[in-house]
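Structure in, sequence out. Go:
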């Protein structure tokens, strides 16, 4: 084979990547492009592999994306890119590649499930509903549901955490809205001390979006990891749900955790705001409207007070409720650079957050 042959140069680049000297692959790839300017998908894959081994992962993804433009029938590559962007907290891009994959492989239950999760995170409720309907229309294992539940309980009781996790993951796409599936997965991953415990909480938060408990538990986990902005995100969602849907969740617990998070972030005024808000929520049925307005004005940049005011005045004074809703949007824009990426968390792109 001629030393300047395109195929030879690709082969040499691959050898350098496989022998953990990826930097040495680039001269061969550069020469290959000079010989054949219209490179094929293999060139882009090798470029991606070299960048990946050098820990330049975003450049790797760019190369893999170019590879897919040249050859879209590389199904595992779609999943690899989608999973990467999801791990990097870019659900919008993760959803794009998940849907491109599903356009080619429409019956992949696991990817349909991930697309459902990503759709709801992006505020695309109709897409979420469609994906869930597709999953639940498959009743292959419906008759085995109780047996599956018993098996999971037995694994958990006998501390067979790995087996419980595997079983839950296998059947979750067939029972996407069965709460015991998520509880089993969370319990198994917690005992295995897996980093993927976060993903289990994330899925539960997304599926049970109007509940509070998973947001509270996820928030506590993030507190334990000292990721306080993200904890704030989850706990704020729990508080919003508890106010909007009048959940029986202990408001004092949620507000205590919020105050704790603000304290860890060094946000003293927000901590004082929560102290005042605790008292107002305790007497919410007898609260004087003017008193509440004064408190909100005093802590006008505190999101929890504005959320509470927006829903408290919703029926009593709709105009005041709308004003507070607008103030929430304004404060979110003001704090966008320091908060938005973290604070709105799992639903950063959800336009229905204040509905």
């Amino acid at each position: 084979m001629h030393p300047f042959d395109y195929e030879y140069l690709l082969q040499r680049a691959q050898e350098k990547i496989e022998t953990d000297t990826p930097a040495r692959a680039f001269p061969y790839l550069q020469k290959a492009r000079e010989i054949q300017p219209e490179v094929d998908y293999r060139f882009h894959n090798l470029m991606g592999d070299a960048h990946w081994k050098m820990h330049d992962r975003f450049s790797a993804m760019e190369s893999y994306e170019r590879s897919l433009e040249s050859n879209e029938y590389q199904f595992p590559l779609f999943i690899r890119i989608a999973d990467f962007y999801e791990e990097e907290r870019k659900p919008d891009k993760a959803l794009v590649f998940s849907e491109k994959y599903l356009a080619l492989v429409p019956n992949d239950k696991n990817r349909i499930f991930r697309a459902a999760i990503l759709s709801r995170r992006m505020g695309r409720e109709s897409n979420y509903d469609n994906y869930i309907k597709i999953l639940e229309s498959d009743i292959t294992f419906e008759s085995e549901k109780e047996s599956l539940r018993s098996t999971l309980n037995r694994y958990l009781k006998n501390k067979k955490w790995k087996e419980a996790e595997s079983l839950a993951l296998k059947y979750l796409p067939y029972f996407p809205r069965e709460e015991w599936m998520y509880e089993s997965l969370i319990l198994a991953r917690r005992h295995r001390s897996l980093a993927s415990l976060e993903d289990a909480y994330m899925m539960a938060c997304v599926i049970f979006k109007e509940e509070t408990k998973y947001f509270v538990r996820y928030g506590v986990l993030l507190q334990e990891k000292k990721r306080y902005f993200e904890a704030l995100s989850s706990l704020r969602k729990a508080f919003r749900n508890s106010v909007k849907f009048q959940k029986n969740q202990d408001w004092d617990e949620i507000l205590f955790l919020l105050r704790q998070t603000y304290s860890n972030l060094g946000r003293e005024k927000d901590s004082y705001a929560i102290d005042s808000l605790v008292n107002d929520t305790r007497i919410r049925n007898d609260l004087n409207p003017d008193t509440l307005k004064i408190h909100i004005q005093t802590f006008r940049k505190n999101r929890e007070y504005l959320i509470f005011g927006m829903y408290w005045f919703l029926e009593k004074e709709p105009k005041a409720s709308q004003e507070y809703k607008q103030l929430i949007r304004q404060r979110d824009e003001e704090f966008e650079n320091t908060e938005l990426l973290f604070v709105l968390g799992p639903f950063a792109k959800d336009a229905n957050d204040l509905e």
